[in-house]
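Troubleshooting entry. Yesterday's outputs looked truncated, so today I'm pasting the complete records for two proteins to confirm everything comes through intact. If either block looks cut off, that's the bug. Protein one:
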Amino acid sequence: MASVFSGLPDRPDLCDRIVSAFRCERPVLLFGTGDGADKTVAWLSSLGGSPAGVFVSPEFARGQSFRGFSVLTPDEALDRWNDPLVLLCFASRDPAVIGRIEALARRCDLAVPDFPVAGGALFDRAFALSHRDEIERAYRLFSDERSREVYSSLLSYKLSGELAPLLSSSEPGYDPLSYLFPARWRRVLDGGAYDGDTARAILDHAPDVEKILCVEPDERNYRRLLSYRDRETRAAITPVSAALSDAVGSATLFAAGNRNSTLFRESHEARREEVGVATVDELLAGDGIDLLKLDVEGAEGAALRGAKETLARFRPALLVSAYHRSEDLFALPLLLNELCPGCRLYLRRRLCVPAWEVDLLALPDQSA
């Protein structure tokens, strides 16, 4: 099998392109405001420069300002600055919005920075080269060509910031649960259960499920889970107020009251909550599960290590988010291969900008 690096374009990464733009006084513009733009401004400062201007979609341009800049429309910005490098500063899962981003990319040089959701190192060329062996080994673990294509496209995107490989890594109509033999499920653990949205989808796919253990650390989300439990008649829903990791204890949660509450990254939206920390093995106490889903905002690796006994004994199917940290793309497949030797690994991604919604799917060897 050829090296995954051999298929990557030999050109400067996005950091180098931005530094080059600053050196030659090429304007760097922000498309979007808010938290994403704040992160981008801080990143640009670390690279030795600052944006020349800011614009938003026409429907959001109301004469406001952002960080001292007048917020323009795309037409106003592209008329004012010649040959800018435009950095996208917001996320979207909406196909119509993504279509408009594609249209803008045909008018200017647009890049999509990929900041790790849970913080930590940026996936630039230096990061990739420092983890080259791990990246190569993870690439060889995937069980089908499409997974390797997704992996390679994501590497190309993370280094270049280009929209095309990012979009090519997504799967139209992709439904993660359908990959994991839902007819076999009876007991499920849903880590990062939010308001029960995944539990509802699981029961839509697998009517024979009897029990779902829904683990959620955010207090507001947990209250939503309690309400969902009282309404759900298809299976027993057991909400658990805890974060998942590799050791039992307590921790500070940066709680956002939505899908983004995390143990690792404070934001202006978050409030601090002291929460209990559990492991999968402790919660199950020797009981088996048929599916383990983990979307725990950067704690996926620790949560998997805390499920070591369950994975070895019961060999459940797994659905694991693999995008909250830069290293998740390669570190989580390597960890699953260690904890579940012989399992079949797949990588898929739902349509989203930037590179969120990356799913690592694992099937035990008897499902092959």
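Protein two, checking that the full record survives here as well:
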Amino acid sequence: MSLPLPPIAPYCVLWIVAIPIGAMATPQPLWLVANVMNGFIAVPT
């Protein structure tokens, strides 16, 4: 009984990959904003 991944799963993977890369690529507060957004997205899951 294997269900397909929920639509949020690809975004979770994307965030897990994008947050560290974004933090290294942009030494600016933008990574902090992205991290906060990641927190808001992770709450409902």
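Both blocks look complete. Sanity check on protein two: Residues 8-42 form one domain.
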